[in-house]
Design a protein that fits this description.
mainly beta; Neuraminidase; 2 domains; four-stranded mixed beta sheet; 41 strands
Length: 565
């Protein structure tokens, strides 16, 4: 990432899934609804939509059915009241959701007679959630219309054929659905890695456990993470009840062959995944109804020091009360290189530096060592296994990861169509890499999985996912926490700060004028930004406050030592 002084479009695909006719715009596999016997989590808000009204027209029946998508209780029992015949059991609401703009939605009768009718619904979608809970923002302003067929019953008009999935207007969506993290391991079993999914808040614990145990990681991340749950292990109960903050997860008898280490890792994945509901503090794991005495396996934390890491006239280190708290064996050597960028390893013993002479340099107790002296290098990034990643700005495909000694690994990049790369940073757990590239003449934020062996040696990158497009250009990007990126775009008084949750939504706000670089802290709502005058601002909530002055380089951190120094 560029640290020295010197909108939004998410790409999504629409596919159609139907019960008997054309369907909702969404992707992913179709799943059966949850058992109505599952003990539900209690969401903050529960919607209780109305059922069919006497004398309702075909348009009103379809409108009521769509509105009933906000009520997942009983497997969307209210919505099913609008259906008749095979559609009652055949309609699959868990196939996904289309998020649209209610004011732009239109419902019209395509044809009708005394006993049957066809109704079409035109949507202006903003996002889709597929059957696996994967959220994708939609660039297109319109989608193919939805078609419903109806017949006249003794109780009034009812729907005989409806698209799978539900439709929610964007104002309701965040009340009915929320983002949750399925936690997987990196290949060394050191870090827990989030894979963000969106599920209805009702029965969230059951949905999370089912997706983690019975499902798979997102395709773009799948080669970069591992799970303690083998394909032979599945949920033994259709529900995951939560009692006083304790989730009760039962596995089928096939889990009996798992050793203690594997069970501990299962427990850790479940505990951290279910904690994302905000209602689960621990997990009781059982097999075929018999409770196990299992302690969650430990995992490495990725939190960083909350202080500003920077280079000033007083030196390089953490700034506290106007003074610089230097790092033994690192600070003096870093400052001597007249650096353009500095990224500090999680144990604070090594720094990846773009030196003033343009060379990517490793700084540790042995002193500075130039690793890459190609022309036009951008700011490097150091991963938790000690590999320093570097690439020339005008050669995005020439990515190299340098280990200790003479180890240099050429990494094929998944953004081969890019003409330039302006910033890159490996996630703190080492499983993902984010890059700002120029593609099609536009600045684009992309993320890809890092494929490693069991020792943490990088081998390749997975397929890249395009997250954001910045028509006004972007200067820097950084990981704000384990699943969120921050980007500085625009310039001068038009500078903007954008956060995007990987697999979630993005928000944009004004940045301090002249912002050129960004560093993450530990939560998406807090970030540090350096402006062109050497002032560091810190964002907390929705406001920016001056943090430090006289800063020439804003450093970034890749974690914290296992024990505080």
């Amino acid at each position: 990432m560029r640290r020295g002084i010197r909108s939004l479009v998410l790409v999504g695909a629409l596919t159609l899934a139907l019960v008997g006719c054309a369907g909702l715009p969404m992707t992913g596999a179709v799943h059966e609804g949850l058992s109505s016997t599952a003990e539900p989590d209690v969401p903050d808000v529960q919607f209780k939509p109305n059922g069919p009204q006497a004398g309702a027209t075909p348009e009103q029946i379809v409108d009521g059915f769509l509105n009933a998508g906000s009520g997942p209780a009983g497997g969307w029992a209210t919505a099913r009241e609008f259906l008749t015949g095979t559609a009652v059991d055949g309609w699959r609401p868990d196939a996904g959701a289309t998020v649209d703009v209610l004011s732009a939605r239109s419902i019209a009768v395509a044809s009708s007679d005394q006993s049957s009718a066809t109704v079409t619904v035109s949507l202006s979608p903003t996002a889709t959630v597929d059957g696996e809970g994967a959220y994708t923002a939609v660039a297109e302003a319109a989608a193919p219309p939805l078609t419903f067929t109806l017949s006249k019953q003794s109780a009034g008009w009812r729907i005989t054929s409806a698209p799978n999935g539900i439709v929610l207007d964007q104002d309701l969506f965040k009340s009915v659905f929320r983002a949750y993290s399925l936690m997987y391991y990196d290949p060394t079993w050191t870090f827990l890695v989030p894979d963000v999914r969106w599920f209805p808040t009702l029965n969230a614990s059951t949905r999370i456990a089912a997706a983690l145990i019975n499902g798979q990681p997102s395709p773009w991340l799948a080669k970069s993470v591992v799970s303690a749950f083998p394909e032979t292990v599945s949920l033994g109960s259709p529900s995951v009840p939560v009692v006083n903050g304790v989730a009760q997860v039962d596995l089928k008898e096939s889990a009996l062959t798992s050793d203690q280490t594997t069970l501990s890792r299962m427990q850790a994945q479940l505990t951290d995944s279910l904690a994302s509901t905000g209602q689960v503090t621990s997990v009781t794991l059982s097999i075929a109804g018999s409770a196990l005495d299992v302690t969650p396996a430990p995992s490495r934390d990725t939190r960083v020091d909350s202080r500003t890491l920077a280079l000033t006239a007083k030196g390089f280190g953490f700034i506290a009360a106007g003074q610089v708290d230097e790092l033994p064996g690192v600070s003096a050597a870093v400052a001597a290189l007249s650096p353009r960028s500095v990224e500090l390893s999680d144990d604070r013993t090594t720094a990846a530096v773009l030196a003033g002479n343009g060379a990517v340099t490793r700084v540790d107790a042995a002193g500075p060592a130039a690793l890459d002296q190609r022309a036009g290098l951008i700011a490097p990034s150091i991963d938790p296994f000690g590999y320093i990643w570097s690439v020339p700005q005008t050669s995005p495909s020439a990515l190299v990861a340098a280990g200790t000694g003479a180890t240099r690994i050429a990494i094929s990049s998944p953004w081969g169509g890019a003409s330039r790369v302006d910033a890159l940073q490996v996630s703190r757990d080492g499983t993902r890499i984010a890059a700002l590239v120029i593609s099609g003449g536009r600045s684009v934020l992309m993320v890809a999985g890092v494929v490693r062996d069991a020792q943490g040696v990088p081998k390749s990158l997975g397929d890249a996912v395009t997250l954001l497009s910045f028509p006004a250009g972007a200067s820097d990007a950084a990981w704000l926490d384990e699943s969120t990126l921050g980007v500085i775009s625009g310039s001068g008084s038009s500078a903007q700060f954008t956060t995007v949750q990987i697999g979630g939504v993005a928000t944009t706000a004004d940045a301090p004028p002249g912002a050129v670089a960004i560093a993450g802290v530990n939560v998406p709502t807090i970030a540090r930004v350096l402006d062109a005058n050497g002032t560091v601002f810190i964002r907390s909530g929705t406001t920016w406050q001056q943090d430090s002055t006289g800063v020439s380089v804003l450093g970034t951190q890749q974690g914290s030592p296992l024990t505080s120094p």
